[in-house]
Amino acid sequence: MKATLQKEPRVTPEQTATFVSPEVNIFETKDGYVLEAELPGVNKDGLEITLEGNEVTITGHRHVEALPGETLFRESTDADYRRVFELDPAIDTVNVSARIEQGVLTLTLPKSERVKPRKISVD
């Protein structure tokens, strides 16, 4: 069973110019799933994670400092991040946890106890 499926974010035309999709990696462990999202320039205060029904939305607002001079060449953008994922019903949404360190968000999505393998003892 897949942990998450990316869903097209529901954004208005005005939002499409102000948000970019962060790159993510998703791993499955024996206890659940781990989603890592790269959010350079985002700290804990600029991070918003909402869980509504079976959708999790990650929004990261960058702290942009004024440049010390005239920009001659620029590949990065000042846009904020936004990405929406549809969660597998097997995820225990009550125990989802998150941490951000050096611009990398780690979202831990534990499997529900009812879907984890278990041993049944024989009498």
Descriptive report:
The chain is mainly β and about 120 residues long. The chain has a single domain (about 5-65, about 75-115), classed as Immunoglobulin-like (Sandwich), CATH 2.60.40. It contains one helix and nine strands, in the order E-H-E-E-E-E-E-E-E-E. It has one helix at about 15, and strands spanning about 5, 20, 25-30, 30-40, 45-50, 55-60, 80-85, 95-100, 105-110. Strands 1, 2, 5, 6 and 7 form a five-stranded mixed β-sheet that branches. It has a four-stranded antiparallel β-sheet with strand order 3-4-9-8, with no helix packed on it. Strand 3 and strand 4 form a beta hairpin. The longest helix is centred in the N-terminal third of the chain and has 4 residues, at about 15. The protein is elongated. About 20% of the residues are buried. Mean pLDDT is about 85; it is low at about 1-10.
Structural class per helix/strand content? mainly beta
The CATH class is identified as Mainly Beta
Global geometry = elongated
Q: What percent of residues are in strands?
A: 35-45%
Q: Give start-end ranges of low-pLDDT stretches.
A: 1-9
What summary fits the major beta sheet?
Answer: 5 strands, mixed
Explain briefly what this protein structure is.
With 123 residues, the chain is mostly beta strands. It is 3% helix and 40% strand. The two termini are 32 Å apart.
Name the descriptors:
123 residues; 4-stranded antiparallel beta sheet; Immunoglobulin-like; 3% helix; mainly beta; 5-stranded mixed beta sheet; elongated; disordered N terminus
